[in-house]
Amino acid sequence: MRLSPLWQRRLAVFRAHRRGRFSLFIFAAVFVISMGANFIANDKPLLMDYRGQLYIPAIQPIAESTFDPSFLPTEADYTNPQVQAAINAHGWMIWPPIPYRYDTIVWNAGAAAPSPPSLRNWLGTDEVSRDVLARVIYGLRLSILFGFGLTIVASIIGILAGAVQGFYGGLTDLLFQRFIEIWSGMPQLFLLIVLSSIIAPSFWVLLIFLLLFSWMTLTGVVRAEFLRARNIDYVRAAKALGVADMRIMLRHMLPNAMIATLTFLPFILSDSVTLLASLDFLGFGMPPGSPSLGELVAEAKDNLQAPWLGVTAFAVLGGILILLIFIGEAVRDSFDPRKTQ
Amino acid sequence: MTLLTVSNLSLGAGAKTLVDDISFAVAAGETLAIVGESGSGKTLSALTILNLLPPGITRMAGRVTLDGIDISTASPAAMQKLRGAAAGMIFQEPMSSLNPLQRIGKQIAEAIQLHEKLPRAVLRARVIALLREVGLSDAERRMDDYPHLLSGGQRQRVCIAIALANNPKLLIADEPTTALDVTLEKQILDLIAREQKARGLGVLLITHDLSLVRRYADRVLVMDQGRAIETGPTAAIFARPAQPQTIRLLAARNFDPPPPSNHAAVTLEARNLTVTFPILRGALRRKIGEIAAVDNVSLTLNAGETLGLVGESGSGKSTIALLLLRLIAFQGTVLLEGQDLARLSRKRLRAMRAKLQIVFQDPYGSLAPRLTIRDIVAEGLTVHTPDLDRATRDTRVATALREVGLPADAANRYPHEFSGGQRQRIAIARALILQPRVLVLDEPTSALDVTVQAEILLLLRSLQQRYGIAYLFISHDLNVIRALSHKIMVLNAGKVVEAGDATAIFANPQAEYTKTLLAAAGLLNAA
Hints:
- The structure holds two protein chains of two kinds.
- Chain A is mainly alpha-helical.
- Chain A contains 13 helices and three strands.
- By secondary structure, chain B is α/β, with parallel strands linked by helices.
- In chain B, strands 6-7-8-3-9-10 form a six-stranded mixed sheet, with helices on both faces. In chain B, strands 16-17-18-13-19-20 form a six-stranded mixed sheet, with helices on both faces. In chain B, strands 2-1-4-5 form a four-stranded antiparallel sheet, covered by helices on one side.
């Protein structure tokens, strides 16, 4: 596929934006690593040879009784020294670089939990003696996926709502505006507390619930852009040509609104990440035990004697937010028609 | 006595020369006009006089002597004294040259206080006297108004009062009337001329409008691309222009009337058009009355003929353009080839839209910036003949571009790569590709330089002859109207003041308002 000259110029501007480009590389690396979390931090071997047969325990469940008939037929616990001995007697195992999952309890961390960073636990362990690095990697995956999901769906709804308001104006606009005012006045946190007492929050429940309120971020901006674009001559010319409403909105007016939208996107994405973290911090977020950056912050607050928790939480959350904003800046610049001339 | 001498002045930005070796002088009591198109360097030359060049532009050579002082050696403090006291300046846009947050009396007083300390009562009396002098009625009360309460003409009067506040010897007027209506234009320039006579001012008038130069300037300096190409007494230059560019500039404002048309069929007939806006009051936004932006206007367009719609801003002429295209709600009937546009269903209306097209004023706003020229021009085809294959569509686009005088490779480029005149050609091509019967031209040349204006007008004229399109030509500029119109309709405050044959109206206007307009444009025969 060949890109249009405008997109080529946009790409060139983005490439020329060093800070944005580096941020994108780092973010992409973090994203890829966290997506492959199961192969990087896991309490199961990546590859195992047992009696001449190859297994991938990281993704396939194997019963413990496979290795010794006296063991139970439940899924194998590879951290158990007896199981390890049984496997090593008839084959070999390759472990991932971090031999813990987000919920693996590290029994022999040495000091009392939370234990400080060591060669085995690079970022130390938390108050339940789980490896912090493993939790951060899984936590990042959850946060990024949640952030992307919320941002994309909320933006689509928000842009459509703003476009309809701005394009039709008048009574449509008036009613929609009043609805948004009432809707945004709803006490989000209380509703969430009430909700969490009725159904257990999960990834999807939280996503849908937060969606109910976060779609309004973009509506105002898009509405304003559409109201402005309504009276631009080329939109009038398109109307005079007989172009259909939907096509005018998408082809002539939406590109105007896109710059404003795109400058907001990284902020919405980082907002979503922060929102999830703060809900987790307060205990209304993901079910207990899920790898979450917010829970890490809460643990850091409870264990001020263990600074590695706080430093890690700060560096990870702050780092990801900064990266997103730098990328957003570069994207915004490359969509700026004055810079792509 | 010579007030201002500019000798061998060159200005540049980096390695680029913007003004190349120009010299001129202004004596007390005389008006020198600098004329040129946009980008010719006329404004920059004027800014140099008060050392007000924008950052990045430097004086590379030349001397400017203002009131006996060489400004290149003057200290910043001495320069500060010269500004206002030796020379006052008026800018193009009176709204942006006044501070919107301060009362106008205070702004004039500030200008005086910079140069002399006066007791409050004396200062107040001076401000009132100045406002009276520039013709602002009810000066005592008006001096406490904010700029937004004044009209454009009144604002420009305040700017003149500020420029004159310290009794300068030289007045620099940089396009002082470009943002104003023609009747105001005349009032403001008459005011400047009157002040000049009363105070013995030297005036440096910077303009692109030669009809102003003819009436108000003693001498002319014609600039083109940073160079002074011709200079001399106004009468001599107008009678015997030597340089081709001067001839072009002069010709651009001197049109023959259009060739008479022999088509007589009525294409569009509009009857009793009325557009009203409600006046809303109070917390409940109760409707207490209506303003008619267009008040019971009827018009007829014949195939191959142009109806010129003339009026000042606020006269409702652009509203008529929008309502004919059914882009705003209105009362009345619009019959296009016998079909009433106001009563057509959406679907039928869409089909009719191909026959009725529009070209807007602002060449920068009328083309979608993110589409290629091909997409812009082809848009109408994709709506009205969606089953056309790609190759045919591209051929039609290429043909349309050729007809408006653009190269074929323009199709792949984007609007920002084109100049204002070229963009206007693209807008015409977009309308033309649908082979419309009626083309509404809403001030299509107002944003263009005079020579480009002339090219666009000639293009429109030849297209009309070739295809017999009926034009509704809307403009405030009577010179342009005359170039194209067979019939004329003069509008004021939404009402038709006068309508009839163009030649008849230009030769013998009946309504008082039409006479005022013609006089302001310098077109009224002294009969």
